[in-house]
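Protocol step 4 of 6: structure prediction from sequence.
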Amino acid sequence: MTSNTETYMVEIGDAEQQRRLSAWRQTPERRISGPDEGAVMIDHLGLVTLFPVSPEIPNLFHAYMGDPEAQVDSGHDSPSGEVYTWRWTLGGREAAFYATIVRNRPTWVSWPLLPAVLRLRGELRSAEELYDSGEISANALRIGEALEEAGDAMATGDLRREAGFPTGKEQRAAYLKALEELDRRLLVAKVFTTGSTDMSHTLVRIRYPEALADAERLTRDEALSQLLQHYLPAANYVVPATLAKHLGLVEPELRAALDRFVASGTLTSANLSGQRGQCYVWQTA
């Protein structure tokens, strides 16, 4: 493995970047036309953000525009506004798991990939266990307990009331801070109801117990392998430092997994202009 990594280095150029853009549907010829094709894209790629948040992760907005340079705006009647509504369209169909993952921004995860993502990014312990070990606040625990007692998804207003966060600017800030503690550990997910514009929150362990059980059976190495098997063929190349940072992974652990793909002959060590450190390129047939 070491000799392969050290003796064979290629340059990542326009051809590799164009293959990525095509696979991520970010070209005029390959652009998606709406949420139906967006759902297919999520199923195929496994991990997709709603809007562009990372150069290493595909997103629905650039795929809809067919242009990786397209800019997001705040207009309701613009392409950005159109893609924003897909949260309810895709969420109402339960097309994929939806939570804050990539750079703690809204991210879709295909159902087959969910156990691996939960193993790598999620917290497999309960909110009560995390509070007892001093890892989350009492406010976060209150939200977890409210969701646990409800046994199902709760709309924001209902969750605030049941968790003891009344109306008011300070209480709203305290609620959002506590919810973020649970979000970043993937203890909660966001769900949508068809015909409603409300977004609700649910405990992953209650809503998706089978995925959580599958995650508990995976080792981290197995989970990384599953993630990369989904990611690499379409991404075509990978910048480990950026991918690890934006996915919340440990970079040495990610590089070790990538080196296993090098050893199997499916990846080659590579250089990418403007990037420090070793990158990797997928070996196309």
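Step 5 (inspection) to follow. The two ends are 21 Å apart (CA to CA).
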